[in-house]
């Protein structure tokens, strides 16, 4: 293998588009190129007609009639699996100069068509998702996909997992050491420079930031109630809450009993590929006094990490991945053990009543603890693992 191996990277969607999967494929491939590697990009996006037919018609009927709780979809089906296999087989033949194949998903790999190293890179397995997040046993259709995925997880040369507890779970599940947790990654387009720090201005004009899609509704609803509670106090009457990733309509049924939404702004999804939306995103991030997401089980690790990099303290739930990465004693904010408005409000007051010196120290701690998670650092560690294995 040469000093600068050639990569072929398989992704769902165009990896040059920062909008797909929380910007991860975009930064992954761009960082490889910045390190001097040639990267062949292969898009595994499904055929729109087939997606509509199977997911919106056939599988919708199956879910409604036989499996109302299933998470199974066209992207998990044998039909889609076979289609992706054809794309990957063609890519292996087309990009014969490839040294390493990487799939940014645990469900697809070209390992059947090449003797070159094949690696998987993702967050969690389908089996882990069903067990941990859905809290139940998989149904028949889900088991079919789990078997396919587990075969690939076992046969891959390396599996790079973005969360430590998931990596441990997979290691125990398969009794294998080829599962690696190398840290997480900061998905920020400002990562090449140092964001401005204006802690005095941020503390005197308090602004809370929440980033998350509607699946984080439990966390944002409690936060909205906490902000309403605080704004009733004279000291916090000007407190602002900015919500990225949702529109007010997404929560309309849930917040109909909260008519007082003064100081609360919904911005919807802000794409880093659209200049004006990217500008607004980073303005909100850099001006935030504190980032909050206390959704149970999972509280937006990637967004919290980006906030830390931008010198923003965090209030988050003590879920396992965050605990293992940053420790039980959080120097860059607070753990909120319960997703209740009262406890969130209490933690917010702890931030908002800090002295200037203490707040600046917490801001610096936030940035410092994030530095091991830059994409440059992550790719370097990944290449070390791959190169070490190649020498062995």
Q: Within the largest sheet, what's the order of strands?
A: 2-1-3-4-5-6
Q: Over all CA atoms, what is the radius of gyration? A: 22 Å
- Major β-sheet profile: 6 strands, parallel
Residue windows where pLDDT falls under 50 for at least 5 positions: none
Q: Determine and state the CATH class of the largest domain.
A: Alpha Beta
- Helix share, percent: 40-55%
What is the CA–CA distance across the termini? 12 Å
Principal-axis shape: globular
If helices are DSSP runs of H or I spanning 4 or more residues, what is the number of helices? Answer: 14
**What name is given to the CATH topology of the largest domain?**
Rossmann fold
CATH 2nd-level architecture of the largest domain: 3-Layer(aba) Sandwich
Structure class: alpha/beta
Number of strands: 12
- CATH fourth-tier homologous superfamily of the largest domain: Glycogen Phosphorylase B
- In what range is the share of β-strand residues? 5-15%
SSE order, one letter for each helix or strand: EHEHHEEHHEHEHEHEEHEHEHEHHH
List the main descriptive attributes of the protein structure presented here:
14 helices; Rossmann fold; 392 residues; six-stranded parallel β-sheet
């Amino acid at each position: 293998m040469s000093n600068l191996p050639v990569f072929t990277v398989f992704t769902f969607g165009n990896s040059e588009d920062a909008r797909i999967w929380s910007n991860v494929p975009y930064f992954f491939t761009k960082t490889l190129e910045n390190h001097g590697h040639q990267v062949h990009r292969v898009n595994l996006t499904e055929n729109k007609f087939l997606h509509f037919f199977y997911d919106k018609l056939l599988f919708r009927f199956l879910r409604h009639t036989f499996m109302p709780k299933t998470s199974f979809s066209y992207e998990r089906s044998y039909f889609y699996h076979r289609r992706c296999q054809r794309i990957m087989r063609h890519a292996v033949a087309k990009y014969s100069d490839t040294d390493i194949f990487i799939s940014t998903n645990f469900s697809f790999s070209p390992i059947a068509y090449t003797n070159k190293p094949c690696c998987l890179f993702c967050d969690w397995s389908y089996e882990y998702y069903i067990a941990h997040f859905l809290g139940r046993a998989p149904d028949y259709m889900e088991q079919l996909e789990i078997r396919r995925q587990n075969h690939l997880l076992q046969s891959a040369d390396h599996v790079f997992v973005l969360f430590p507890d998931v990596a441990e779970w997979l290691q125990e599940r398969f009794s294998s050491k080829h599962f690696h947790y190398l840290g997480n990654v900061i998905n920020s387009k400002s990562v090449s420079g140092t964001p401005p720090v204006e802690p005095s201005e941020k503390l005197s004009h308090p602004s809370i930031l929440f980033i998350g899609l509607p699946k984080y509704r439990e966390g944002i609803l409690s936060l909205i109630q906490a902000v309403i509670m605080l704004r009733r106090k004279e000291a916090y009457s000007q407190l602002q809450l900015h919500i990225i990733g949702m529109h007010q309509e997404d929560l309309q049924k849930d917040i109909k009993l909260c008519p007082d939404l003064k100081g609360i702004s919904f911005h919807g999804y802000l794409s880093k590929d659209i200049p004006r939306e990217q500008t607004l995103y980073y303005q909100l991030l850099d001006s935030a006094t504190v980032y909050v997401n206390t959704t149970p089980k999972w509280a937006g690790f990637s967004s919290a990490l980006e906030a830390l990099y931008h010198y923003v303290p965090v209030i988050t739930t003590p879920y396992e991945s965050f605990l293992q990465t940053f420790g039980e004693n959080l120097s860059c904010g607070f753990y909120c053990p319960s997703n209740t408005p009262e406890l969130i409000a209490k933690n917010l007051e702890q931030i908002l009543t800090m002295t200037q010196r203490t707040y600046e120290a917490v801001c610096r701690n936030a940035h410092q603890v994030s530095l091991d998670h830059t994409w440059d650092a992550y790719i370097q560690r990944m290449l070390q693992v791959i190169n070490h294995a190649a020498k062995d």
